[in-house]
Design goal:
heterodimer, A: ABC transporter involved in vitamin B12 uptake, BtuC, globular, disordered C terminus, B: mainly alpha, ABC transporter involved in vitamin B12 uptake, BtuC, two-stranded antiparallel sheet, transmembrane transporter activity (chain A)
Chain lengths: 342, 334
């Protein structure tokens, strides 16, 4: 019973939004049902879902990795070059993810060691990696020599595909890591109250390194999968993924302040924004209409969140006042020593 | 958000003369690093790069700095008040450019176009300021507004290119005052104005305190709402002017224009040495930051580097500079 209440309190707002979005999309696009609809929503888990997971992890630790979309672009270009050099699909993905994780770990180390704000550092690396992508591609779109690699990713099992299965696996693994392991829980401690966590003995530097390694790895995996699937990589690819990912994480209920939310929130946020985008595009609306509604949704979510916090604070204050007025039967000034003895 | 906690310091070391001297040096270097660096790069580029010190080239540098610079100087007030930065400035600039072209084209008057564009930007800024001033996160609010503005502009124009017809809007970009193009004059004027506002007025001092320590500012009776509204007004004016001048230069605009502007603007503010968490930012240094980024790109262009190499070079310089500025500030504050 209590668990049910907990779940509804934690995911209630997002669940309601999802229901609302589905109803709204069904009104606009009545044909957006069944397997094709589910498939087109799930297909958007790559790159958006994996990128959102990476952003969410850095948000949970109280930082923000703005460079993730550039890492995705760099990794997408590198993955295509690697597959051209004769490496198989799985080794390419592994190498790309490991390289992304290493780059991310370096950023996390710099943030922790120098005490620099991650927003500041990653704005710089965002431009840097974008330039590196341009260097790797030579400034022009590149394609694989052998399209067999992308054919492997375009297979379909019901509503799932190799890419969406990978994305779901990533979400599950990260979800277990965050909620069931000690380093995962350290992310929440550092994000919720950094000074308190450090005082309590949570290691700060490894925790930040892990968080940024995860976001770098997620960005790289998403970029490599997506570029290999579409069999092309451009120097200016994935530019809108940063904002879409941050929006999806926030709509899903991850807090920018840190320490709140998990992979279920990521999945909810991505499914909400993807349903909106896929539904609208199924009836011919351009992508910017979906972006417009995502913006409205984002404002509504933070507005609702602020309202809930305001109401619960009012309730808390009212409760305090009621308890105090109970006490006021005794003359407070005269009773002071008694109160303090208790 | 993202306040990277200072490493747990042990008991403060006793202050020696050498210690104070080092702190002073660090602070002086942090204050004057930007002008000195720009000067150094200018001299170095003139000596090593053919055609850099050419009058036409310097003029081109100033013109291409002006648009990013105006928007960045406007944003400096946002960063100063502790509201981080606006992720929606790119779409606001495009909106203002399109509104300017459409209104000027419809009424035949450039002035009416300018006024309507600035008014629209101010209204948009006010709406965001009210939300942010009420305590909502500025990054999310401006991100959401940016998406909404972009969507509205794209829907409103149908993704088509907007022009002002036969109305001579280019005059705004090409007119010359005191031998300098009008956008450069406006850039300098905007920098002077925001600099005066933030450094020499009571409102500016209060904005600084708000960014430095919001709780202390609150207990001293300083309204967070008022400071935020003024900061967003500065941002809105900067965005509107940048949009109008950009539209006047290009003579046309569409929703997908200026995709990199938001990040260029943020990079300029950060290279200018603004403290991301507020309390420390200077319009002059931001302007120099924008100038430095353009100069570096220009030098690399004259040296014959490819676009990818230039972007990589600028990115590397931004990373190194922001890390150095951060370390200097930390040394100065200790």
């Amino acid at each position: 019973m209590n668990r049910l209440a907990d779940v509804s309190r934690t995911y209630g707002l997002q669940g309601a939004i999802l229901a609302l979005v589905i109803v709204a999309v069904l009104v606009v696009a009545p044909d957006f049902v069944g397997q094709p609809a589910a498939f087109s929503v799930l297909e958007r888990l790559v790159p958006l879902g994996i990128i959102t997971a990476g952003i969410a992890v850095t948000m949970i630790v109280g930082e923000l990795d703005l460079s993730i979309a550039s890492v995705a672009a760099l990794s997408g270009a590198t993955a295509i070059l690697l597959s051209n050099s004769g490496l198989g699909l799985v080794p390419v993905l592994l190498v790309a993810t490991a390289a992304g994780a290493a780059v991310g770990a370096l950023q996390g180390w710099a943030v922790a060691r120098l005490g620099i704000s991650s927003l500041v550092l990653t704005v710089g690396t965002l431009i840097l990696f974008r330039g590196a992508t341009s260097l790797v591609t030579g400034g022009v779109p590149i394609t694989p020599d052998d399209y067999g690699v992308s054919d492997q990713l375009l297979m379909r099992y019901g509503v799932l595909s190799p890419t969406s299965i990978t994305a779901l696996l990533v979400l599950v693994v990260l979800g277990v890591f965050l909620s069931r392991t000690r380093p995962g829980m350290a992310l929440y401690a550092v994000g919720g109250g950094r000074n308190e966590a450090v005082a309590a003995g949570v290691p700060l530097r490894p925790t930040l390194v892990i968080a940024f390694a995860i976001s770098g790895g997620c960005g790289a995996l998403a970029g490599a999968l997506s570029s290999l699937r579409s069999a092309s990589a451009t120097p200016d690819g994935f530019t809108n993924m940063l904002l879409l990912g941050v929006a999806a994480a926030l709509v899903g209920g991850i807090s920018l302040a840190g320490g709140r939310g998990g992979m279920v929130n990521v999945l909810l946020g991505v499914v909400i924004t993807s349903t909106l985008a896929a539904g609208l595009s199924s009836v011919g609306f351009k992508a910017f209409v979906a972006e417009l509604f995502t913006g409205v949704l984002l404002l509504a979510v933070i507005g609702a969140d602020a309202a809930v916090r305001w109401i619960s604070r009012r309730r808390y204050l009212a409760e305090q006042r009621r308890q105090l007025s109970g006490l006021s039967a005794i003359d407070l000034t005269a009773a002071e020593p008694e109160v303090s003895r208790r | 958000m993202t306040t990277t906690a200072p490493p747990p310091t042990s008991t403060p070391a006793p202050r020696t003369a050498a210690d104070t001297w080092q702190r002073k040096t660090a602070r002086i270097v942090a204050d004057y690093a930007m002008p000195l660096l720009v000067l150094f790069v200018l001299v170095l580029a003139s000596v090593t790069t053919d055609g850099f010190a050419d009058g036409a080239n310097l003029r081109a540098i100033l013109i291409s700095t002006a648009i990013t610079g105006i928007a960045a100087v406007g944003m400096t007030a946002i960063t100063l008040t502790g509201n981080l930065f606006s992720l929606g400035i790119g779409s606001t600039v495009v909106l203002c450019g399109i509104v300017f072209l459409a209104v000027a084209g419809a009424t035949g008057s450039v002035l009416v176009g300018v006024l309507v564009a600035v008014g629209a930007s101010l209204l948009l800024g006010l709406a965001q300021a009210l939300i942010v001033g009420a305590g909502l996160n500025p990054v999310i609010t401006t991100l959401a507004f940016g998406a909404i503005v972009y969507g509205c502009v794209a829907v409103g124009t149908g993704g088509e290119v907007v022009t002002a017809g036969s109305v001579p809007v280019t005059r705004l970009a090409t007119a010359s005052v005191l031998g300098l193009p009008l956008p450069v004059i406006i850039f300098i004027a905007m920098t002077a104005l925001v600099s005066f506002l933030t450094a020499r007025t009571v409102t500016g001092r209060r904005m600084r305190l708000l960014g430095e320590n919001r709780a202390t500012a609150g207990t001293s009776g300083i309204s967070a709402m008022k400071g935020t509204v003024v900061a967003f007004a500065s941002l809105s004016v900067g965005a509107a002017l940048a949009g109008i001048l950009s539209a006047a230069q290009l003579r046309q605009m569409q929703a997908n224009d200026l995709p990199n502007l938001t990040l260029d603007v943020i990079a300029a503010v950060l290279v200018g040495g603004a403290a991301i968490n507020g309390g420390e930012a200077s319009a002059v240094r931001t302007a120099l930051g924008a100038l430095l980024i353009v100069i570096l790109g220009n030098v690399m262009l004259l040296q014959g580097l490819a676009p990818g190499e230039r972007l990589f070079g600028v990115g590397a310089v931004v990373v190194v500079l922001v890390v150095l500025l951060h370390l200097l500030r930390k040394a100065g504050a200790r």
